[in-house]
TrEMBL record:
<dbReference type="GO" id="GO:0005886">
    <property type="term" value="C:plasma membrane"/>
</dbReference>
<feature type="transmembrane region" description="Helical">
    <location>
        <begin position="64"/>
        <end position="85"/>
    </location>
</feature>
<dbReference type="GO" id="GO:0020037">
    <property type="term" value="F:heme binding"/>
</dbReference>
<feature type="transmembrane region" description="Helical">
    <location>
        <begin position="92"/>
        <end position="110"/>
    </location>
</feature>
<feature type="transmembrane region" description="Helical">
    <location>
        <begin position="215"/>
        <end position="234"/>
    </location>
</feature>
<dbReference type="InterPro" id="IPR045062">
    <property type="entry name" value="Cyt_c_biogenesis_CcsA/CcmC"/>
</dbReference>
<feature type="transmembrane region" description="Helical">
    <location>
        <begin position="130"/>
        <end position="156"/>
    </location>
</feature>
<keyword id="KW-0472">Membrane</keyword>
<keyword id="KW-0812">Transmembrane</keyword>
<protein>
    <submittedName>
        <fullName>Cytochrome c assembly protein</fullName>
    </submittedName>
</protein>
<feature type="transmembrane region" description="Helical">
    <location>
        <begin position="177"/>
        <end position="195"/>
    </location>
</feature>
<dbReference type="Pfam" id="PF01578">
    <property type="entry name" value="Cytochrom_C_asm"/>
</dbReference>
<dbReference type="GO" id="GO:0017004">
    <property type="term" value="P:cytochrome complex assembly"/>
</dbReference>
<feature type="transmembrane region" description="Helical">
    <location>
        <begin position="241"/>
        <end position="259"/>
    </location>
</feature>
<keyword id="KW-1133">Transmembrane helix</keyword>
<keyword id="KW-0201">Cytochrome c-type biogenesis</keyword>
<feature type="transmembrane region" description="Helical">
    <location>
        <begin position="6"/>
        <end position="24"/>
    </location>
</feature>
Length: 275
């Protein structure tokens, strides 16, 4: 097995340990298991970074060309943001009960799709807009996934007390954190769409082509726009928005990876040359 694949599956395995540590920690209400989950995530993040670095060095561009690379990069950004938030706000340790299972499953799926030979991007597709597009997409997904995790923490803490629930921030704080991450994700996702339009115009001569991924991206973005509208205009708080954040995450995952995987689109056709 090539070093890159060994590193990749090491990362997946450690994320798996993290996943089950968080799940059993929540079931058994054991804070020590959350600590194991957190540091397993840190340990898995190291080979994860190495995989991206190896792919980058092989192609000279951030790995995002196919679904596998896109998943790998999106989960990298998710775990990075998760770890930063965990170490800066220690009271949200159980957040990993949603974030790490999603990271584990999606990265494992990426492994089943990974090609051993890296691919390059067609010269016609290379543009400065691509960097804004990539960062907006991966960071936007990371933000709304963490928002959904905070929503789950809200629902778990609501009407419960004692043990790990007393160590969580109060409901108002969880609600506020979730709102901020949704707002951040909405902005980042908007940047992704705008940069994608300019990129599309350079490549295809049109800003919008009704590509299935474009349509689903717009739907996902509007879904989070509605979340913000309901909160700011109608004063929605708490349980309703916590559920909303969890359900909206499904639309985001579908638009990012479900559509390109099941339907032949412009976004499915970046892989054009192997080294």
């Amino acid at each position: 097995m090539k070093p890159e694949l060994m590193l990749f599956w090491t990362a997946v395995s450690l994320y798996g340990i993290s996943t089950f540590s968080y799940i059993f920690g929540m079931i058994a209400k054991q804070d020590k298991l959350f600590t194991i989950g957190l540091f397993s995530a840190v340990a898995g993040f190291v080979p994860h970074v190495a995989v991206i670095a190896l792919r980058w060095s092989a192609t000279g561009i951030t790995p995002f060309i196919d679904i596998s690379e896109s998943l790998t990069l999106g989960i990298f950004m998710t775990v990075l943001l998760f770890l930063v938030f965990q170490f800066s706000t220690k009271k949200v340790r159980p957040l990993g009960v949603l974030v790490m299972p999603v990271a584990f499953v999606l990265l494992g799926w990426a492994g089943t799709l990974m090609k051993e030979v890296a691919a390059t991007l067609a010269p016609a597709l290379q543009s400065g807009w691509i960097w804004v597009h990539i960062v907006g997409a991966s960071a936007g997904f990371a933000s709304v996934l963490i928002a959904a995790g905070l929503g789950l923490m809200y629902l778990l803490k609501e009407n419960k007390s004692g043990g790990i629930y007393d160590k969580l921030p109060d409901l108002a704080t969880l609600d506020m954190f979730s709102y901020r991450f949704v707002a951040g994700g909405f902005i980042l996702y908007g940047l992704m769409m705008i940069s994608g339009c300019f990129w599309s115009n350079q490549v295809k001569g049109s800003y919008w082509g009704w590509d299935p991924v474009e349509v689903w991206s717009l739907v996902s973005w509007l879904t989070y726009g509605i979340y913000l509208h309901l909160r700011v205009t109608f004063g929605w708080r708490g349980r309703r928005l916590a559920w909303y954040a969890l359900i909206a995450l499904i639309a985001m995952i579908v638009s990012y990876w479900g559509i390109p995987f099941t339907v032949e689109t412009f976004h499915s056709g970046f892989r054009i040359d192997h080294k």
